[in-house]
Write a structure and sequence with these properties.
Elements: E1 12-13, E2 19-20, H1 29-40, H2 53-60, H3 66-76, H4 99-107, H5 115-127, E3 145-148, H6 155-179, H7 190-202, H8 210-220, E4 242-245, H9 249-252, H10 265-271, E5 280-282, E6 288-290, H11 302-313, H12 323-327
Antiparallel strand pairs: 1-2, 3-4, 5-6
Helix pairs in contact: 2-3, 6-8
Keywords: Plasmid, Transferase
Organism: Cupriavidus taiwanensis
Protein name: 3'-phosphoadenosine 5'-phosphosulfate sulfotransferase (PAPS reductase)/FAD synthetase Rme
Amino acid sequence: MRQRGESAIRPARNQDGDLVLSPVCDWQDDDIWEGIALYGGGARPSYSDFEDMRPIYAHAVGTSCAVVADAILEGAGSRRQGKCGARLGCHVCQMAEDKSLANMIEYDARYAYAAGLQRLNRFIRHTRFDWKRRHWVGRTIRGGFIKIQPDTYHPAMLRELVRYMVQLDYDEQCRAERAGERPKFELPPLDLLIAVDALQSLNGLARPFAVWADWRDIRLRGLRYDIPEVPQIPQSTVPAARFLHVGKEWDDTAAPAEWSGLRDPYLESFTADSACGPALQATASGRVVWALPTAQQFSVDAEAALLIASLRSIGGWRPMMPASRQAR
């Protein structure tokens, strides 16, 4: 709050341009808990009694008291080291071992739904230094050379992670439907699945519709992709880079691909000089492409995403709400 210039008496603009007033910015931890006690006991008017908040902080450290839990976290010195105390919701964070979620799952059965999230966190932690799961071949060509060194996740690892997340989502939606409530989490929402599939296909990391094939197998064919327990790979330095000469002649002498990218010669041949033909535009480099609608950021149209899901699954996809609400 101090870095953002927030104040308890003067509204400040946040990064979205909204005016924000921060009454607690000058409070200490003890003031926070005293205020929560006063509001919860009805001694001060408030919009909430905070009864649902206090158990979360308490169970994150494995105690029955939120104040005691805060004292434990303070004594551990995690905040002074620049790390989080109790992490509530950061299920893939690798800055520190997520003991908070483990304590919550063990302490109270109401958090059992998050056990899969903890397994995913543990799997990522145990494999983060497994260089066999990394992509070794760089894509950038400098001076005719490409770098050979572990970098981002290998396509096989990416697909494995997507499968695990889709499986966790499906299991949670089934649990929520049995309980007659909304799912507690959704890892890759529908629009993100479409984006991942499109980008992987565009960059040659997977076959087209590979994500949809896994999605269909899990939801409609009964296949399961459970997160395995794997031994932790000790931390090690990244192997030294080597460089492979690929030259530049293969690219310099290639014929210009006028029809690659955002063009369709088959469609344009049938719609040439007609009102229904695609509009064309020239880029700064002189390349001619379709004049398509653009946005400020990469996104997937929500209505189109639902249409794709319904066509791909033939009714196998359901929105994130209980069956009782869907019937309405």
